[in-house]
Amino acid sequence: GAKHAIAVNSCTAALYLSLGMLDLEPEDEVITSPLTYPST
């Protein structure tokens, strides 16, 4: 199991937090899936 976990209310929030922890530079490229699931 994991020692630490963070719960978020959306995938957008999860991606935002994940990208913030990667220490990306302006010239770095991030590739994600173009598939989405619209919530109701």
Q: Nutshell version of this structure?
A:
By secondary structure, the chain is mostly helical. It has one helix at 11-21.
Rg, nearest Å: 13 Å
Total count of domains = 1
**Number of β-strand runs:** 0
Q: Whole-number average pLDDT?
A: 87
Distance N to C terminus? 32 Å
Per DSSP, the total helix count is: 1
Walk me through what this model shows.
With 40 residues, the protein is mainly alpha-helical. It has one domain (1-34). Helices cover 28% and strands 0% of the residues. The longest helix has 11 residues, at 11-21. The model has no long low-confidence stretch (mean pLDDT 87). This is DegT/DnrJ/EryC1/StrS aminotransferase. Pfam families: DegT_DnrJ_EryC1. It comes from marine sediment metagenome.
Labels describing this entry:
single chain; about 40 residues; mainly alpha; 1 helix; about 0% strand; flat; PyrdxlP-dep_Trfase_major; DegT/DnrJ/EryC1/StrS aminotransferase; PyrdxlP-dep_Trfase; DegT/StrS_aminotransferase
Topology:
Layout: H1 11-21
